[in-house]
Amino acid sequence: MENIAIVNDIDNNIVNSILFISSKSEYISLSENNLKQYIKDEYHKVIIIKNNNEIKGFLIYFLLAPEIDIIFIAVYPNNKGYGSKLLSYLFDDAKANNVNSIKLDLYENNITAKNFYIKNGFKKIAVRKKYYNDKFDALIMEKSI
After folding, report:
1. Which of the 8 DSSP states describes residue 9?
2. Domain 2-105 maps to which CATH number in 3.40.630.30, 3.30.2350.10, 3.30.160.20, 1.10.260.40?
3. Beta strands of the chain (E only): which ranges?
4. Global pTM?
5. Segment 11-23, tens digit of pLDDT
6. Torsion angle (degrees, nearest 10) of CA 110, 103, 117, 109
């Protein structure tokens, strides 16, 4: 049984699970300290998805209406629908908070993520040259709500 929950308190089991999942992505660099700051901050939301009481993915976003910025989203294992369910939760939260735009940036060469976002209604709106490590471009994508 899958369920989605907001992380409101620092729980070491949850933190360790999120860090484990993030370590499986070559595109995410998330430290324990940063994660704990996101959990404590009133404008950031940390969402997890569980299946049979095991965390399978997370979503971190910055909510400052009328916009949301996706900071991180990761699931493990992939291709089980967890990412789409996290985005569905995000879209509902956006509507409930009168958000009209969701934005994100991603490595230009992260084709899997790019295709995932396009499938979920995001469009490329800009490119930040050499944004990551002064080497790689960032694609800026947006979905209007």
Report:
1. S
2. 3.40.630.30
3. 2-6, 44-51, 54-64, 67-75, 101-107, 123-132, 136-144
4. 0.94
5. 999 999 999 999 9
6. -10
Distance CA 33, CA 119 (A): 32
Q: Pseudo-torsion of CA 38, 130, 128, 90, nearest 10°?
A: -30
C-alpha to C-alpha distances, 24 to 21, 29, 39, 73, 91, nearest whole angstrom? 5, 10, 21, 12, 25
Identify the DSSP state of 98. T
pLDDT, tens only, 117-142: 999 999 999 999 998 888 889 999 99
Q: Token pair for residue 35?
A: 């994660």
What is the domain partition of the chain in residue ranges?
Answer: 2-105
